[in-house]
Write a structure and sequence with these properties.
The protein is built from 8 helices and 8 strands; from the N terminus they run H-H-E-H-E-H-E-E-H-E-H-H-E-H-E-E. It is α/β, with parallel strands linked by helices and 231 residues long. The protein has a single domain (19-158, 197-230), classed as Rossmann fold (3-Layer(aba) Sandwich). Strands 1, 2, 3, 4, 5, 6, 7 and 8 form an 8-stranded mixed sheet that branches. The protein is globular, with a radius of gyration of 17 Å. The two termini are 33 Å apart.
Length: 231
């Protein structure tokens, strides 16, 4: 990085849980599929994106590649990004095993992907934006909007905090850490160290980036799903 850009955030620096091998990712994938209907979730995302066969979708934080594979089976072309080479290796392994085409994997993230302006018909990201502090979330969302065609949709799933009226923040965190659909230890570390934001801030970030929020839902007071349209 040049001296003129030494202020730019290095998103490749690992924040949160890291995986050292493809076997570890496979175990993680198997655990998640026991507690979530991953395929149903991905079909719902495709429905919210309102894309069809031949459409091009940008996915930021592809992880195991589950969404990209679901989309490819419906004829959607996916550019699937992740900063983890191990995750990308696992996702590519799954694609090869299933004999799928139409997916391009790239090691990049919100701040480093390259795309022509207004070149994608939709975008999706799951559990990745919280790796960035607020100012860089704003940069990231603006870059996603720039890559989308006018009227295209963006689906965002992430940990976003929303405590109940009158509830102390400390009481809220103590409560939701017990609701984690997985490892309590990992979720406690997430709350303490990562960059999940508040609902009203996330709403504002999306709107300031040029999105209209068309759909918003929440599970357990911290797992948010946003369906947005580029204005």
């Amino acid at each position: 990085m040049s001296a003129e850009r030494d202020w730019y955030r290095d998103e490749v620096r690992q924040i949160g849980t890291d995986y050292a091998s493809v076997d570890e990712v496979a175990s993680y994938d198997a655990r998640m599929r026991k507690i979530r209907d991953v395929e149903a979730e991905n079909r719902e995302i495709l429905s919210l994106l309102k894309v069809s066969s031949g459409s091009s979708v940008l996915e930021i934080g592809t992880g195991t590649g589950a969404f990209a594979r679901t989309a490819a089976r419906q004829g959607v072309r996916v550019t699937a990004l992740d900063i983890s080479p191990v995750m990308l290796a696992y996702a590519e392994q799954c694609v090869k095993k299933e004999g799928l085409s139409g997916i391009r994997f790239v090691r990049a993230g919100f701040l480093s992907f390259e795309a022509e302006k207004e070149s994608f018909d939709g975008a999706v990201s799951g559990l990745a934006l919280h790796h960035l502090p607020e100012p860089w979330k704003a940069v990231a969302l603006r870059r996603v909007a720039d890559a989308l065609k006018p009227g295209a949709r963006f689906c965002l799933n992430d940990v976003v905090f929303r405590w109940k009226p009158g509830e102390a923040p400390e009481a809220y965190f103590a409560r939701i850490v017990e609701l984690a659909p997985g490892s309590r230890k990992n979720f406690a570390r997430h709350i303490a160290e990562e960059f999940s934001t508040l609902e009203w801030i996330m709403d504002g970030l999306l709107e300031r980036a040029g999105f209209a929020i068309e759909h918003k839902s929440c599970q357990h007071d911290f797992l948010f799903s946003y369906g947005c349209r580029k204005k």
